[in-house]
Amino acid sequence: MNTQFPGPELWQRTVGDIAATLPGATAVLRNYKIDFCCNGDLTLDSAAHRRGVDRGELERALAALGTPDGASAVPTAMSNDVLIGHIQACYHEAHRRALQELIALSRKVEAVHHEHPKVPAGLSEALRQLQRDLEPHMAKEEAILFPAMLQWTEGKFDIPISELRHEHDDQGISLRRLECLTDNFTTPEGACRSWQALYVGTAQFAEDLIKHIHLENNVLFPRFAAAEIRT
Q: Are 208 and 94 in contact (CB under 8 A)?
């Protein structure tokens, strides 16, 4: 079954809301290079205009998405404890493992191929900086934010969500730096296995971090930001 949208309503919805509530929308938005995590508060109309996307083509792609039978598995339907557990298990631990391996691999590639004109010089340091930024961010969520969310019942929510959103914005900038250094994760002709593995792994890490930021910015955080507004 196709999902039908009244035109005006679709274009005035934010891309974060569309990504969070329409199964399959994240893949479509990524295909059109529309940032739904760090810039999730933009309307679809504004985001499409910013990227120079053909409106008709984008609307058809979104309208063609079917609603699967397993709609209950959509993150918006998850309870707070299930969603938080999902974020920690699928993203926090995965980021830690991935970054450690990617930093070591990028150092190897940069050293072995330092004379190659397309060597990703500076990639290992960019990954290391992302690790330095991401680790305290995740630790703060695990030690303070998530426990507070799980214990919250009603009234004002005191955790500074705006600060975490700002850190997400910085992470988005770091991801664009990775894309720049790797030519959008495209290996040059004749690249060795290590170089290929580095770019495949870095692309997957970037994809996972985008999904992680999206789940927090557009699904988890709004539940508690709304609690702040009501009080």
A: yes
Q: Inter-axis angle of helices 44-51 and 55-63, to 10 degrees? A: 130
In the chain, domain spans: 7-73, 78-230
Query: What class does CATH assign to 7-73?
Result: mainly alpha
* 152-176: pLDDT as tens digits: 866 666 667 888 999 999 999 999 9
H helices of the chain, in order, are 7-12, 15-21, 25-31, 44-51, 55-63, 80-87, 93-112, 123-140, 146-151, 161-181, 193-214, 221-230
Question: Can you tell me the distance from the alpha carbon of 203 to that of 76, in angstroms, rounded to the nearest whole number?
Answer: 26
Q: Give yes or no for a contact between 211 and 175, defined as CB atoms under 8 angstroms apart.
A: no
Rounded to whole angstroms, the Cα distance separating 44 from 114 reads 42
The answer to whether the pTM exceeds 0.70 is: yes
